[in-house]
């Protein structure tokens, strides 16, 4: 099987579309508090994406590669005077009833979510470019999951202001482009069977980052930790 096929096989088992928390989200079974807790904790992930992309940027030795990769930072941060993904996520927070100052304060982010996100940022800082870029390849599977999420939220969580879904609507096409470009790079750079194994290990690691984030959010839901809606 080729590399892409092996990634798809791994994703079928380990990507977070199969996590029980996501399954409950899609079935409409989350309470308002659970959905808020997810939005708040995922913001911690979102705000670190441009940080890990800056580490990857610094590993790309040629101008064209950097010209492309820097787009990811702009997508999230926005260019000066523009909104980007981070701003859209803050609006998602408002759409579920969370004040942006709460999200920006970092208050309420679960310890295990901090560890998972640190793990991802440090991985991208410490590993060679092949593995750092390969760890972003979960994005091959994010657009379909986001499309499912948009439908599920419209159907099951009508109390969420529709403007909040804009993050996911914009991200579907950005994610497809990012994933296609990263896959092409990884396919070009992975020359040996050992390289391919490193790609698969990086991808598995990233699936575990996303999975543990949801484990943490789900566990907090079970022990009933309150989210501060304002
Ligand atoms: O909501 C999701 O399920 C989901 C998953 C992923 C992913 O699979 O890595 C990303 C995102 N969202 C996302 O919004 C995003 O900006 C993003 C960037 C990256 C990355 O690794 O560079 N993954 C993801």
From TrEMBL:
Keywords: Oxidoreductase, PQQ biosynthesis. GO terms for molecular function: pyrroloquinoline-quinone synthase activity. Its EC number is 1.3.3.11. Pathway: Cofactor biosynthesis; thiamine diphosphate biosynthesis; Cofactor biosynthesis; pyrroloquinoline quinone biosynthesis. It catalyses: 6-(2-amino-2-carboxyethyl)-7,8-dioxo-1,2,3,4,7,8-hexahydroquinoline-2,4-dicarboxylate + 3 O2 = pyrroloquinoline quinone + 2 H2O2 + 2 H2O + H(+). SUPFAM superfamilies: Heme oxygenase-like (SSF48613). GO terms for biological process: pyrroloquinoline quinone biosynthetic process. Residues 10-215 form the Thiaminase-2/PQQC domain. HAMAP family: PQQ_syn_PqqC. PANTHER family: 4-AMINOBENZOATE SYNTHASE, PQQC-LIKE PROTEIN. Ring cyclization and eight-electron oxidation of 3a-(2-amino-2-carboxyethyl)-4,5-dioxo-4,5,6,7,8,9-hexahydroquinoline-7,9-dicarboxylic-acid to PQQ. Belongs to the PqqC family. This is Pyrroloquinoline-quinone synthase. It comes from Actinomadura darangshiensis.
